[in-house]
Amino acid sequence: MEHKRFFGHLTALFTIIIWGTTFISTKILLVDFTPIEILFFRFVLGLIALVIAYPRRLKLTDGKQELLFIGAGVTGVTLYYLLENIALTYTMASNVGVIVSISPFFTAILSHFFLKGEKLKINFLIGFIVAITGICLISFPDYSDVHLNPIGEILAILASFIWSIYSILTRKISMYGYNTIQTTRRTFFYGTVFMIPALFFSDFKFDLIRFFNPTYLGNILFLGLGACALCFVSWNLAVKQLGAIQTSVYIYMVPVVTIVTSFLILHENITWITILGTCLTLTGLVISESQHFLANRKKH
């Protein structure tokens, strides 16, 4: 049991490291692609990859379970990414990054009421406050540059809440014991299907010639195969092993990974405020996880 939880922590950490670097690929693709185009192409590519990886059809034992997969697809794929992308058109990326990082708080609250065995602990709340303080320092090293837009902030909060619903749904789905690749593939299918109507209300172009550019091809492959197909599977595996609350706190690390990759790849400067924010964020993560760690130690 203990090695499974350790594997769960490793997969959650791996997922966050990949997700924290996706902004670089997205930034490169935004030169010739719209946000909705990037979103659609990456998830279609991810869906195809999962079908190839595990082509066996998922047979549900209960017809009502289909509603959970529809809900997971709509929340975790369609709504979350659309709301996040739209929010980015109204407010600063740093604002959205901070607000989206509060999703573990929403996840903890929903888990407390809708998932048995996952209760809200005081250490989680303390860790949340410490981590969010650190994330704010990372995102706003110079508070004179902070500009708020109510529409953007509201959309980002909605995206954060939507992701917490997705976390609850995937936790419930994981309890059925189905293959994780199959369940992720079904979620991708519904997410992509419900994304199609949005294409007609945006400047979407099905222009695949753009992918003859090796840079664009490489980055969309990274987003589709890595950040989507592989990482959604690994994230769902982590949720299956650790639960929705424990897995969600790893989201605190996304801004930290972003800062590190910005320094290593884009050669952006790291200030002492950023270092302090990183330390606080990691401390908040440790505090949030401490209750589960101590509980496991007592068992042994």
List the helices and strands and how they pair.
Layout: H1 2-29, H2 35-53, H3 65-90, H4 93-100, H5 103-114, H6 122-139, H7 150-174, H8 180-199, H9 214-242, H10 244-248, H11 254-265, H12 272-299
Brief characterization of the structure:
The protein has twelve helices and no strands. The protein is mostly helical.
Largest sheet: none
Tally of alpha and pi helices: 12
Radius of gyration, in angstroms, nearest whole number = 19 Å
- What is the count of β-strands? 0
Helix share of residues? over 70%
Shape: globular
Could you report the average pLDDT, rounded to the nearest whole number? 83
Poorly predicted tracts of residues: 293-300
| N-to-C span | 11 Å
Q: What is the string of SSEs from the N terminus onward?
A: HHHHHHHHHHHH
Number of domains: 1
Strand content: under 5%
> Which structural class fits the helix and strand makeup?
mainly alpha
